[in-house]
Design goal:
The complex is a heterodimer of chains A (519) and B (501). By secondary structure, chain A is an alpha/beta fold. Chain A folds into two domains: 250 residues, no CATH class; 228 residues, 3-Layer(aba) Sandwich (Rossmann fold). Chain A contains 19 helices and 14 strands. Chain A is elongated and about 95 Å long. In chain B, α14 runs parallel beside α15. Chain B contains 16 helices and 13 strands. Chain B has a six-stranded mixed beta sheet with strand order 9-10-11-7-12-13, with helices on both faces. In chain B, strands 4-8-5-6 form a four-stranded mixed beta sheet. Chain B has a two-stranded antiparallel ribbon with strand order 1-2. Chain B has two domains: 210 residues, no CATH class; 214 residues, Rossmann fold (3-Layer(aba) Sandwich). Chain B is elongated and about 105 Å long. Classes of the chains: A alpha/beta (519), B alpha/beta (501). At the A-B interface, α6, β1, β2, α9 and α10 of A face α6, α8, β1, β2 and β3 of B.
Chain lengths: 519, 501
């Protein structure tokens, strides 16, 4: 298989990083402030749980600032969704882990013949990893700039004289050692080592003698004897004598170790870590897809026409899937001058989840990730602010309302027209009249700054603030109002709908009472 | 090596898969009484007897006849059979002394213990063979002659000698010789035990003759860690052979266990036989007929459990239910209806288990499964009404029901009024008979019984408990149409000791 010819500029293979197509940004070491409110901290923990060794969290903390960097990753992510490509990467990583394990042993073990052998094993694992990856990539149709550059560079590296010699030498030395057979006679404290002379094995003869009593399945009495990769002084003494029996093979091992100390290509070491970011995230996606959920590659740009269909909170979804409970998906859209989604309606109806989802979708999109949903067009933001209700901060010695106001002011001061703000229930700790007043003030500020926002609130009047606001409502089952649907729909707020439905259920709504009293 | 005293072609299954109705069957037929009589103090015999009885409906006629023949040998030679059983018990008891309390984690200790165990087993096998040689001639059943032949041929002297040689060699008096390769980290790997029986001189010849060089080192006497390592290395080499020997010991143990289990059944039969004979109660070797033939005729049939409880010979009953799919038992209270129903169920199970039955003569078809549906005391959990409970229990049986099963009903559907109860019973029984199930039904419900008598006369046998004119019971049941009263007044009078009026 061949894909379209590469542009001429690619004739000199140039490959540096699988995560960053251009100059990489400075990596954030700490989670951004919005992570906790959006549950993105949990998402990162879940995604990276099985990839602890690779220190992947900073790649989730560091947002990409331009559409091209996002596209670079989306292309690679899409290429890696082919199972052959993912398989090639997985097998590369496994071999590299194996290599590191061997190297660690080579450092730890003092016995020379053993340490050199582990060093040799490391080189063998490395050569296998590199060759297999190169071969596997050749067979794939790749569309991403990143993987194509990797492939071109890698095939040159594998063909280079240095690498070819390294692999051939390593294999020769290994084959000679693997061919050695010897005998050990243990008689009390006396140990004799000599070459194997074709003596008969004893165990089969014993088993055959008692075969006539055999009755179906039997217990396995073999003791699990753990062999530690290290080497004790008795094994070392035996090994010394095996080396005396086979001097050439062991001399070749020593020579190999001396000749190839620095074999590891730094770009491959970097690839090994960075590519795990894709592997880990796609594994997370696969878990949810297996449960019937959909992810899509969002279009990310600076247009404020935002549109999402079939989306869900990825963290909550993972929890629900584990409990085998259904996951409700939601849609939203901001048209023309609409900027603020105001979410109201009955409690426990999925309002907070909706707000988190809005934030998660944007952050994940800004990393170049596929996002929960069937279709997504998202905004390329500069900063993402969240304001969720907090436990009262005793140390601050301030009232909660005061606290709310301080925090929202800080956000409004930093927000630009390219920012996103997610607000969840503020001003709940004051009178309704106060809340209305403050709410209108803050809304006016948001609209004036032209930020994109979601605001979960009990204040119905904010939903019809002006043409910039869109009203969304959490809903209940029409037939049984005690059942939440977790659907958030575009609809004017109606604080009475829930109460009326409950009344209907018990036959005391106006309609029901009339009918019942008619007779 | 197989025992084959219970089946022609396979070992006895001491833990048969049992349906959820089993506890009801055990309770309703008082099987524990029977099992207790078979077992005496031997709990193991009790387990085997219970398994044999509950698993009985799975046996075919060939199996039943096979057991009847073996049982015939046992009744003729009880002492030899008990001696063989005692040997099997002893072997297993002595094995317990070898292994118990030791949690073996080293191949060398596993090997050592297994070799000792096998040495003991070899001794027991030789003793077993001696019994076979001494008494084999007086046994005529296929089961015993085959077993004795196996003991003679498979445990011949040269085989026993070979086993003893191996057991001696496994002490490794000349050290353990291992083959090895270099593992992943150049440490020894893939250790395999080699036969090191060549004499020393061979070694020297190889040395002098320019054979492979060899290098020897000695452990420092105070190097305890080194000693442990060497032991571990040795363990690595003998791990597989220790496994093979331990498994072999298990295999031989398995042989003794099967022997013990299969003999336990016959020891149980002997015990029961002795008890009943002492009471003067007759036993008969039943004639099994294929399922579906609807044969069943007997003379002097009695409830074995009642005999064991009363410690006397109970009244026997004769009837001929050949060709009848429904046996309806009616008549006087305390007239022996339930006892007869239990006698029928017990005889069915005992025949199919290969036992004799409590009767003077008995011939009957096999059933594919036996179920009981007895009226129960009020449900203690109060979760269901009584009729609900009965119907739900019946539904459970119906889930498992197959053609040619037999179902014993005792006063079922009496929890509601007679009209409703009769209608349910009529519908249930009609459906069961059409499904090819054989039904035995004890009932007071005249409407139901009468309807069966009239409308199902051809496939129904009606038995009625007798009552003499003075009200006394004979516990004899005779063929007879259901009568509209069950003489409850009599019972009332008896209990209250005076005129009911």
């Amino acid at each position: 298989m061949r894909d379209e010819p590469l542009p001429p500029a690619a004739h000199t293979p140039r490959f540096e990083s699988i995560l960053f197509g251009s100059t990489p940004p400075v990596l954030e070491r700490e989670p951004p402030e919005c992570f906790r409110d959006l549950n993105l901290d949990q998402l990162v923990r879940s995604v990276t749980a099985r990839w602890q060794d690779y220190d992947l969290a900073p790649f989730f903390y560091t947002r990409l600032a331009d559409a091209d960097s996002i596209a670079y990753r989306q292309e690679i992510m899409q290429d890696l969704e082919q199972s052959e490509a993912m398989h090639a990467i997985a097998s590369f990583s496994a071999s590299m882990r194996e290599m590191r394990r061997h190297l660690a042993l080579a450092v730890k073990i003092r016995e020379r013949h053993a340490a050199e052998r582990w060093r040799l094993n490391a080189v063998l694992a490395y050569c296998g990893a590199v060759e297999h990856l190169s071969t596997a990539l050749q067979a794939l149709v790749l569309r991403s700039r990143g993987l194509r550059a990797l492939r071109a560079w890698l095939s040159e590296y594998v063909a280079s004289a240095g690498f070819v010699a390294l692999a051939a030498q390593a294999r020769k030395v290994h084959a000679d050692l693997a061919a050695i057979r010897y005998c050990v006679l243990i008689d009390g404290g006396t140990v004799t080592v000599r070459a194997y002379g074709g003596e008969e094995e004893y165990t089969p003869a014993v088993a055959a003698t008692f075969e006539k009593f055999r009755l179906g399945a039997v217990k396995d009495y073999r003791v699990k004897l753990v062999s530690s990769p290290g080497m004790n002084h008795i094994e070392a003494q035996i090994l010394e004598r095996v080396a005396l029996l086979h001097p050439d093979a062991f001399a070749a091992l020593d020579a190999f170790g001396a000749a190839y100390r620095d074999y590891l290509e730094p770009r491959l070491a970097r690839l090994d870590r960075e590519v795990q970011w894709y592997v880990a995230y796609l594994a997370f996606v696969a878990r949810l897809r297996d449960a019937g959920l959909t992810f899509c590659y969002p279009q990310v740009d600076t247009s404020k026409h935002v549109l999402v269909r079939g989306a869900f909170d990825a963290v909550l979804a993972e929890r629900l899937v584990a409990l085998q409970q259904p996951v409700v998906t939601n849609d939203f859209e901001l048209r023309s001058r609409e900027r603020v989604l105001v979410v109201s309606g009955p409690n426990q109806g999925g309002k907070t989840t909706f707000a988190r989802m809005f934030g998660q979708l944007h952050w994940l999109a800004a990393l170049g990730c596929p996002v929960p949903g069937t279709e997504a067009k998202l905004f390329l933001f500069d900063r993402l602010f969240t304001h969720f209700e907090r436990e009262e901060d005793i140390a601050s010695l301030r009232g909660k309302l005061y606290d709310d106001l301080v925090r929202i002011r800080a956000i409004l001061q930093s927000a630009t027209p390219a920012s996103i703000v997610v607000i969840n229930e503020i001003f709940a700790s004051t009178t309704l009249a106060d809340a209305r007043y403050l709410g209108r003030k803050v809304m006016a500020e948001l609209v004036r700054r032209d930020v994109l926002a979601v605001w979960v609130t009990f204040l119905d009047e904010l939903a019809s603030f002006d043409e910039h606001t869109v009203s969304l409502v959490s809903t209940v089952d029409e037939r049984d109002p005690t059942v939440r649907t977790f659907k958030i729909v575009r609809r004017p707020p109606n604080g009475l709908a829930y109460a009326l439905a409950i009344a209907d259920k018990y036959g005391v709504s106006y309609e029901k009472l009339r009918k019942r009293l008619v007779r | 090596m197989n025992v084959l005293l219970m089946h022609v072609d396979r070992n006895f299954e001491a833990k048969p898969a049992l349906g959820p109705q089993t506890p009801d069957l055990v309770q309703d037929l008082a099987l524990d009484t029977l099992v207790q009589a078979m077992a005496g103090d031997d709990k193991f015999v009790a387990d085997i007897a219970r398994a044999a009885l509950l698993g009985a409906p799975g046996n075919d006629i060939a199996t039943i006849v096979h057991r009847q023949q073996v049982l015939g040998d046992c009744i003729a030679q009880p002492a030899v059979v008990r001696e063989l059983y005692a040997l099997a018990v002893e072997a297993i008891e002595r094995k317990r002394g070898h292994w118990f309390g030791i949690f073996l984690r080293q191949p060398s200790s596993i090997l050592h213990a297994s070799v000792e165990l096998l040495q003991m087993f070899v001794e027991m096998l030789v003793r077993l063979r001696a019994v076979a040689q001494r008494h084999g001639g007086s046994f005529g059943s296929r089961g015993f002659t085959a077993l004795f032949e196996v003991l003679r041929s498979e445990l011949a002297d040269d085989y026993i000698a070979l086993v003893k040689r191996h057991l001696a060699e496994l002490a490794f008096r000349r050290g353990v010789l291992l083959a090895a390769e270099l593992g992943e980290g150049n440490q020894g790997d893939n250790y395999r035990l080699l036969r090191s029986s060549q004499p020393r001189s061979n070694w020297f010849r190889r040395l002098l003759g320019g054979g492979p060089r060899e290098y020897t080192f000695h452990l420092h006497p105070r190097d305890e860690a080194g000693g442990r390592i060497l032991t571990e290395l040795r363990d690595r080499g003998i791990n597989d052979v220790a496994n093979a020997v331990a498994q072999s010991a298990d295999h031989v143990l398995g042989f003794f266990e099967v022997l013990k289990a299969e003999l336990a059944f016959y020891v149980g039969c002997l015990n029961l036989h002795e008890r009943l004979t002492a009471l003067g109660a007759p036993v008969a070797i039943p004639q099994p007929r294929p399922a579906g033939t609807r044969e069943l005729r007997c003379t002097g049939l009695y409830d074995v459990c009642l005999a064991l409880t009363l410690e006397r010979k109970p009244v026997g009953n004769d009837f001929d239910a050949d060709g009848k799919s429904l046996v309806l038992i009616t008549g006087a209270n305390q007239g022996g209806k339930s006892t007869l129903l239990r006698a029928i169920g017990l005889a069915q199970l005992m025949m199919q288990a290969g036992l004799f039955v409590g009767a003077e003569s008995y011939a009957g078809e096999l059933c594919t499964a036996l179920y009981t549906h007895y009226r129960r005391e009020e449900d203690a959990t109060m979760t269901k009404g009584k009729l609900d409970e009965e119907l739900s229990r019946l539904s459970g049986i119906v889930d498992a029901l197959a053609p040619d099963a037999a179902l014993l009903f005792n006063e079922s559907f009496a929890a509601t009024n007679e009209r409703e109860g009769s209608e349910i019973a009529w519908q249930v029984v009609g459906a069961l008979l059409e499904a090819g199930v054989r039904v035995f039904f004890v009932t007071h419900q005249y409407e139901f019984a009468h309807r069966c008598f009239v409308e199902r006369a051809r496939d129904t046998l009606c038995l009625r408990a007798e009552r003499r004119a003075d009200g006394a019971r004979t516990y004899k049941l005779n063929e007879g149409a259901p009568l509209p009263t069950s003489f409850g007044q009599d019972l009332y009078r008896e209990v209250f000791g005076e005129a009911a009026a």
